Amino acid sequence: QAGPTDAQIMNDEASPGDVLTYGMGHRGQRFSALDKINAGNVKGLVPAFAASLGGEKQRGQESQPIVYDGVIYVTGSYSRLFAFDARTGAELWQYDARLPDGIMPCCDVVNRGAAIHGDKIIFGTLDAHLVALNRKTGKVIWNKTLADYAAGYSFTAAPMIVNGKVIYGNSGGEFGIVGKVEARDVETGELLWSRPTIEGHMGSLKGADNGVTGKTNASWQGDQWKNGGGATWLGGTYDPDTNLIFMGTGNPSPWNSHLRPGDNLYTSSTLAIDPDTGVIKWHYQTTPHDGWDFDGVNEFISFDASIGGKPMKLGAKADRNGFFFVLDRTNGKFVSATPFVSKVTWATGYDKKGRPIYVPENRPGAPNTDGSKGTSVFAAPSFLGGKNWMPMSYSQQTQMFYVPSNEWGMDIWNEPIAYKKGAAYLGAGFTIKPLYPDHIGVLRAIDPTTGKIAWEYKNKAPLWGGVLSTGGNLVFTGTPEGFLKAFDAKTGAELWKFNTGSGVVGTPVTWEQDGEQYVAVMSGWGGAVPLWGGEVAKSVQNINQGGALWVFKLPK
Ligand SMILES: O=C(O)c1cc(C(=O)O)c2c(n1)C(=O)C(=O)c1cc(C(=O)O)[nH]c1-2
Ligand SMILES: [Ca+2]
């Protein structure tokens, strides 16, 4: 087969026989209309096969599978890519990136998925390369260096393909890198445009004007912007209605906000970008002058709904800072912000213009002039967020968002720090603490037109996997305890679970093959929680590692 073509990729949301994009459609809704597996029969779901990623490289498996022409493609920890036969689970080929010793991913050696186009399957590596492989053989077609890994740049997200361009972001916000969004020709890997996310860098844009204020450095002082962070480490979504790419940007660097007065644009924001030129069409900053690592990369998902009787083109984002945002996606105008976790201490809400109403005493204090640490505060959510990278889902059937969230806070304080290439650039110390004795994770069904929570499911360990919803009135997600679970989308009743043998921090997908509906998810515990989780890390230290693709269907 010569595909998938640009048109097929654009139609992924409506084609149940394959999974061609990270997001199950460029809008990122992660909804499939398939209903052969449904709330009535899901209790009969059984494994079709499991396929091991093997070896000693069993760390966090955050990948979302791609399914095309009878093959399942999954990325694995340590920048690996596997092709498995979608009917038997037999391995067709495996590609292992040869990583240098000096790579510096902040939060485990993860990768979230690949992009497919024509004869190619494309993914990013922890040493900041983008690699296009022949999807039939696994042989390298092109391999491009994106940035200097020794300065802290890495790559963990799934790239996306929009009309022949592969579009992607970067990682490294904990090392004082500068966030970027870039586009390359999918056939050759040649750079088409490069869009920095930090204001003072706008002059260096290749091939397009900056399209924003025309001012540089307006929201930064001095040279702080030069190592200002704003990594685009989760990649983006794309909306065909507006022809816009939506990219979230991460935390400003360093975390110590007293070292960088100002809003620090465009950190902790959502950017709407023209895919042809890289021009920023609008931006909305969820946490101006972020002082808590509320890194706002979270996915922005397009959907249509009526607000106050008026039909609108909207987008929603469950931000790490604990608020669920709805914006007009045509212009970035603020519609609403509602807390989606039980405790938010840093702001009481948002004003009509969409600026946070801060609680100043809950910002960690400046370090003292003698170099000792500043006043420590208790803040919620913790820096790992009301929600972290794990993608939510929007059901076209129930018109609700299903948000994997976590209930935790942190003690956080600031320390002096100076930028040094290749070293952590935080200027802060912290300890994460659970808020409740019996649970941290909460899967919530949210009505985006009101912000009201329709139901919630509580999980002992933090939820760290993506969500899928289907036309069978189902919602699927995984748990660190090892389960893939299915819930009734309307009521939240738990209908089915299966233990995969290691924590599930991957994102489930579904497709139809030979007249049957399949569900697949990666199993393999890891990600940021065991590394950064403070007291919470201790509570999950006995979870076994793994690395396997699990595929399920109903018995014939
Ligand atoms: O600022 C950044 O560049 C950056 C990158 C990443 C990443 O690439 O995985 C994470 C974070 N920040 C981060 O703050 C974070 O909490 C986080 C969790 C995870 C994970 O995969 O579990 N990655 C990242
Ligand atoms: Ca970060």
TrEMBL record:
It comes from the Bacteria. Its cofactor is pyrroloquinoline quinone; Ca(2+). InterPro entries: ADHI, PQQ_b-propeller_rpt, PQQ_MeOH/EtOH_DH, PQQ_rpt_dom, Quinoprotein_ADH-like_sf, Quinoprotein_DH_CS. Keywords: Calcium, Disulfide bond, Metal-binding, Oxidoreductase, Periplasm, PQQ, Signal. One of its GO terms (cellular component) is membrane. Residues 21-335, 440-519 form the Pyrrolo-quinoline quinone repeat domain. The active site is at D293 (proton acceptor). It is found in: Periplasm. Ca(2+) binds at E174, N251, D293. CDD domains: PQQ_ADH_I (cd10277). Disulfide bonds join C106-C107. Binds 1 PQQ group per subunit. Binds 1 Ca(2+) ion per subunit. Pyrroloquinoline quinone binds at E62, R112, T156, N388, W389. The keyword Disulfide bond applies. The keyword Oxidoreductase applies. GO terms for molecular function: calcium ion binding; oxidoreductase activity, acting on CH-OH group of donors; pyrroloquinoline quinone binding. PANTHER family: QUINOPROTEIN ALCOHOL DEHYDROGENASE (CYTOCHROME C), QUINOPROTEIN ETHANOL DEHYDROGENASE. Belongs to the bacterial PQQ dehydrogenase family. This is PQQ-dependent dehydrogenase, methanol/ethanol family. It comes from Sandarakinorhabdus cyanobacteriorum.
